[in-house]
Amino acid sequence: MAANREWTKYENSRGYDVTCCEGEHVSLSELTDDPGVDNRYLRNKNIPFYPQSVLFRVSEVCHVTEESGVWGIFDDGGFQIPHHDEYDKENFLWWSLSVTKEDIADAEENFLEKLFPDGWGYNQWPFLEKFTTSPAFQSKSRYGNFRFTFRLRKLLSLYATQFCYNSAPVFRVLDTKIYKKEIMYSVLVHPRHIKYYRQYPRLPINSDDVCGYFQGNMLWRCQAPSACLGHRLVVDKEESTVHARPLKNKKYYVWDHVAVALYMEPGWVLEVDREQLYSSVSVCEVTKRNLLREPDHALSEHKASEVLEDIAIYYDLD
């Protein structure tokens, strides 16, 4: 497969270099061996042993935006692609997986079941939280102070009702994108009557692939949960336990995550009742290195809370 794999290199709208493979979710091991991928973090040697291929079953997704974006969403009564598409030529509304502490605990149990089929020792303590430290698991965001969180099943129901003639939308493998330290696996969701994307394979329904979908859950087999490894995974076969041993020197590596792209034509609005919008939005801290575009800028959490209060007053929301 690698011999026939085509990689496209370009600079995205934010000025970052991207290496992209369309129609395939390329695993970390394949990326490491692929001669078409030139990434020094992937080539890092002596990476400490860490939990790999950890299966997460995620039922929630989130969309993060800045101050102008959150006002626009409430003005529109829902979500749409930007009015001015000089930043993004694709008709996609982007969502990220919202991984909860319960999701991490469930993934840890699945990892232990695979490692110790006969059961693990009584001295087993939580360990996965020491490794799930990449931006994919953080409450902070690079994209703004306002996070909308929805159950994926609910979001898909709204999408199907409004754009799919009440039929189930289609899930497809969109691409694998590689940035400097980031691997993004994109999943495309589109109405069944949209035929533009027939060349992209259907998303699997099982959990053996990098990413899949089953009964309202995104199935993500995370391969690199730490952008910066500060622990080594130690397996004690005699005690049937594992633990995270702190490292003296941290090791930088790539991290991976999943993004869901809802197909949206210009003018389409994924309508959500404003009361529901308000109950789904929360304030989050913006990371020091962020992807905000001028004139928007990072707000303090106090200021962001005041923005939501102003929205509630303006639209008479509880």
How would you characterize this protein structure?
This protein has 318 residues and is of the alpha+beta class. The protein has one domain (2-288). The chain has six helices and 16 strands. The protein has a nine-stranded mixed β-sheet. Strand 10 and strand 11 form a beta hairpin. The longest helix has 15 residues, at 101-115. The radius of gyration is 20 Å and the shape is globular.
Low-pLDDT stretches are: none
Q: Tell how many strands the DSSP assignment holds.
A: 16
What is the overall pLDDT average?
A: 93
Beta-strand proportion? 25-35%
In whole angstroms, the N-to-C terminal distance is: 54 Å
Largest beta sheet, briefly? 9 strands, mixed
Strand order of the largest sheet: 1-2-8-9-14-6-4-7-16
Number of domains: 1
Instruction: Estimate the global geometry from the Cα principal axes.
Output: globular
State the secondary-structure class. Answer: alpha+beta
The SSE string, one letter per element, is EEHEEHEEHEHEEEEEEEEHEH
- Tell me the Rg in angstroms: 20 Å
Total helices: the number is: 6
Helix content: 10-25%
Present the secondary structure layout.
Blueprint: E1 8-11, E2 17-22, H1 28-33, E3 54-58, E4 60-65, H2 67-76, E5 78-79, E6 92-97, H3 101-115, E7 146-151, H4 152-163, E8 170-178, E9 182-190, E10 211-214, E11 217-222, E12 228-236, E13 241-252, E14 255-263, E15 270-271, H5 274-280, E16 281-283, H6 301-314
Parallel strand pairs: 9-14
Antiparallel strand pairs: 1-2, 2-8, 3-11, 4-6, 4-7, 5-15, 6-14, 7-16, 8-9, 10-11, 12-13
What are the salient characteristics of this protein?
318 residues, alpha+beta, 9-stranded mixed β-sheet, 3-stranded antiparallel β-sheet, globular
